[in-house]
Records
---
Amino acid sequence: MSGIELIDWKMKKMGTFKLVCFDLDGVLTVKDDSWSYIHHNLGVWEQAKEHRKLFFASKINYQQWADLDVGLWKNVSLDKINSIIQQIRVRPHIETVVQELKNRNLISVILSSGLSFFTDYVKNKFGFDFAIANSPIIGENNKLTGEIHVSVSYNDKDSVLQGFLTPYNIKLKDCIAIGDGENDIPLFKEVGFSIAFNPKNEFVAKAADVTVADGDLLEVLSIILSRL
């Protein structure tokens, strides 16, 4: 750690934090992509894989990618989707982490470029205060229409969280963010403190204030509490 990094870290530590923001896939779950989990279970992974290639080749934007992917699920019942997402393994100790944050009057938020029916499920099961994600549209007979309302794109978590915070008079510097992917980096740069949890690559690790590699959520909790 250089002298500049040390000064910056100390300045961040002095802040009073009000909110903790968690990525979902790969942070609160063992699997790092709920989209692909659903695709595999519905037997449409080969088509979805081509959509992924188009996005990362900059041939389509995130809205178009989401439209194409959710279009593969058209007429699938919400009950079927819910039965799939409830099979996704979540990490141990989530409830403990959330309760400890509540005990200290910290707001807990799930912020994901994934799917609202999964973020809502985890939010309600473990007691998070809020969940922000993308909402597939449900039509007649409780079936997916193949359309989706995108609230969180790939690289805009910082602006999405800022928009959420404004009515509460909370600033991004009042927040702690935990993530594992490159799409968390813009948020890491703006919040008061950031934790790369089992980061996918060195770019994610370097963008965060602290890295927890091969750790669990209790270690993340310990770091959060040490910064309060």
Note: The domain at 3-31+90-226 is CATH 3.40.50.1000 (Rossmann fold).
---
Amino acid sequence: MAADDIAQLVNVLSKTHLGDGELNYKGLGLKMDNAESGLGLVQEIEQHQDLKVLRLEGNTLGVDAARAIGKALESKDQLQRCYWSDLFTGRLRSEIPVALRSLSSGLMIAGARLTALDLSDNAFGPDGVKGIDQLLRSAACHTLRELKLNNCGMGVGGGKILAEALMECHRQSLVVGTPLRLRIFVAGRNRLENEGASALARAFQLMGSLEEVHMPQNGINHAGVTALAAAMRHNADLRVLNLNDNTFTKRGMLAMAQALEHLRNIQVINFDDCLVRCEGAIALAAVLREGLPVLKELNLSFGEITEAAALVVAQALLDKPHMEKVDLNGNCLGEEGCEALRGAMEGQDKGDMLASLSDDEGEAGEEDEEDDDEGQDDDDADASNGYHDWNEEDFVKENGTTANEESPYQSQCPVRRQSLFVSNFILFQPFLYFGLFVAKSRS
């Protein structure tokens, strides 16, 4: 090793943190191509007798370096948390699964029992998921509480592999009496789409232990949302649900509203840029009125919601004692609608709860209504083409209606009382009429 390389290594090692069972190489920007360039890290791992946390974020790891590190991990049976995000910058897609298998092998041989695994911001695609498949199925993950795979480009195939691995891990953990109880799941920006989301929904339902789910920007539409909604009902401790920038439309939001009836511990709901629309917002308002007692934050921004529906949502939130923030920005309220919403909140001393309305899209016109109809046609086309494999009809039958029946919110449809969801809407009609009256009086 050249003198300059040794000097650089000494400088880098001086910045690492050792103590409390943690070895921290975060953000050092090391390029470890081979065993020699990873020697400093390998030696520190070997010398750290009670290693519990290994932070390698922001470095880049080659196949040979990963093999050497994996070998060093074989004796680290106390290792619990691995923060390995942004670890393969500049690496070939084909290298990453091989490197991940080496790291995984070390953990499994050691008999480690992980509680946290973060591999976010590694663009490894479905092949990368194959690289951690055996690890996720193994006893090393029976104790896993946090799994973060944000921005990994898993795609539909990777989502399915991940779901199967989690379900197998749960099955095997039950056999030995230590059931997998995953609490935090993060997989935004992964192009999971409906099939990937539906596969993961089955895993979520099986585990029933989730407290936080973050799946923004995944190209999921109403079919995948309906599958996730059905799964969320079985996760009674859910506190945070972030599905930002997916496409609910009416059908997805109605299914999600029905699921939220059963979730009493939700504190944060982020449905920003989800095309919730008016009927979806009103459905959620009905649930808000009777449920979600500890809700703190609600984000329904950029959802094509009009003034009347926004006022109904605001009214439903006024008696929430823990409520801190509601975001209705980027909707279709119009200038007067924004003023009416602010007035409604300020009139109850809740003005500071309302986020900015600076990006409001203005009142919806006839062209917007036509787009709404076209969007519904797209929903129907997706369903008729069998785009998703989740049995949506069975799910909605369970909740008092069938997939081919009209929404209980349409005026021409007789109101059904089979579920709390629909009866709540009946109670909420006066607030809806008030919102419509305010909006119409200005036209």
Note: Residues 155-175 form the longest helix (21 residues).
---
Amino acid sequence: MRTAVRAGRWLSAALVAAACTPALQPATLAPAPLAPKDSTEIAIFLIGDAGSSAYDGEPVLQELALQSDSLRPVRQFVVFLGDNVYPRGVPAKGHPNRDDAEKKLAAQVLAIRKGSAQGLLIPGNHDWDRQGTDGWNSIRRQDTLVRQFGGTDVRLAPAGGCPGPDVVDLGTQVRLIALDTEWWVHNDVKPYGDTSPCPTRTYDEVVDSLAGALRDKGRRHAIVLTHHPMRSGGIHGGSFTLMDHLFPLRNFKRWLWVPLPLIGSIYPFARQMGISNQDISGRKYRDMRDAFERAFQEHPPLVVASGHDHDLQVIRGGRPEITNATYQLVSGAGILGHASVVRDIEGSLFQREAAGFMRLDVTRDGRVRLSVTTVVPEGSRPKGESAEVYSLWLTQEGGI
């Protein structure tokens, strides 16, 4: 018995020591050459999981608005990649959290409109009542508020709890294809089958329509917008730290520092084995990903842009074992202090556990430059200061 207790204490100490060791972060890489400002036709901002933003001054949203404003008169488009309102989307009028939800949503819409941009908000699982019973109602309430706050410049896409795809062509250069991936994995009431008011009513119809949107894009670059990524080195992709094994209750309440050595490993192991459909290991999630990958085969999108994991990742695809899309971008770190662990996986070009967003600059001749901006209290940089930490030309020629 004493031996077991000593072993448990030793393991706890080892886990704490390892967990407190700073994670190695990749150095800022040499930047990809900038295109002349007058050659940029469209700038597309990608930011996700910003639904807990400090609506009286979230640094990440402030930096996004500043960048957007500095790019005038270039056409700009901002995409929020889901989980727009934590913790459970937009509740009904009279609910004690309703006012807070409206302010969080308004802050994101304002960040779009400050720079005279247009924008989309993609639904996430938290917007669907955290995948709960009031999910469909919650997403419809969010749709109404976005229309109220955003006018004709900002909208929820897909709207009304429909799965999509919702197609937005930005001139002759870019086709945005928005999907509500929570609709696919949602276990409760949703618009499905003969009674659905949506243009696509079944899983097969969604996949067929997605394949058609990719096939008919012409020479435009296709960017598929989802909340759930096809590939990720973050927590939803199965990456957990020693802290998650030792203090598993912090996954539910961040202040629950209760050490549970050994038994605490049950939770992360269960997640990795597919207990949750919010993880890539979950059955419904795998079914969705496999169906989308089939749709990508003949006409792969240049980018799948997603949130869900609270980190920043650039993953090179173009291979079935990773993703048929040329690149998977994960930009789910739209709140300062909300980033989570991320690991290097096959295809990883960049990963960072930090708040920030991504930007795609599309030139008049069809080239696409990716940049990653972090907004973090890092080193000697003041809290909220930003820096471009990674950049890459995704294409050197126009769309095909």
Note: The chain has one domain: 41-238+279-395.
